[in-house]
């Protein structure tokens, strides 16, 4: 009788890990579409300047448009900063892959993704994007050995 598969490792949630998660999971949109909200807010603010309404409200909308444009332009940097300021940053995570699924445990979060709950596994350059009932998770190849990566590939 074959023994059930089990792999366990630990890694630190550092800036390099978060950067890899972002670059492997977010597809940049080179069009102006992400800026539509910023443009709309700024245009509303400019229209309110010429209306008979408080200038504070008009400048507020223009300011929101500028902040939204900066959010789109510097999305990766802001996302990384938020992750590094979170309580999860610099903590050790234990990753376990077995017959049931993928389990992660850290000081603040315990998560389990069952193989039956996974809709899709997409292989990227540096890891796997795992789409499941609760959303999408990323598993880096840096934290896996060849056997664990091959095991995940069998689940695709």
Task: Describe the secondary structure blueprint for this structure.
Layout: E1 6-12, H1 15-25, H2 36-50, H3 55-73, H4 75-85, E2 92-98, E3 101-105, E4 110-114, E5 118-123, E6 127-132, E7 135-140, H5 146-154
Antiparallel strand pairs: 1-2, 2-3, 3-4, 5-6, 6-7
Transmembrane segments: 38-67
Keywords: Membrane, Transmembrane, Transmembrane helix
Protein name: YcxB-like C-terminal domain-containing protein
Structural commentary:
The chain is an alpha+beta fold and 156 residues long. It folds into two domains: 6-27 and 87-154, PH-domain like; 33-84, no CATH class. It contains five helices and seven strands, in the order E-H-H-H-H-E-E-E-E-E-E-H. The protein has helices at residues 15-25, 36-50, 55-73, 75-85, 146-154, and strands at residues 6-12, 92-98, 101-105, 110-114, 118-123, 127-132, 135-140. The strands form two sheets. Strands 1-2-3-4 form a four-stranded antiparallel sheet, with no helix packed on it. A three-stranded antiparallel sheet has the order 5-6-7, covered by helices on one side. Strand 2 (92-98) and strand 3 form a beta hairpin. Helix 1 packs across helix 4 and helix 2 runs antiparallel to helix 3. The two termini are 24 Å apart. Pfam families: YcxB (PF14317). This is YcxB-like C-terminal domain-containing protein. Residues 97-153 form the YcxB-like C-terminal domain.
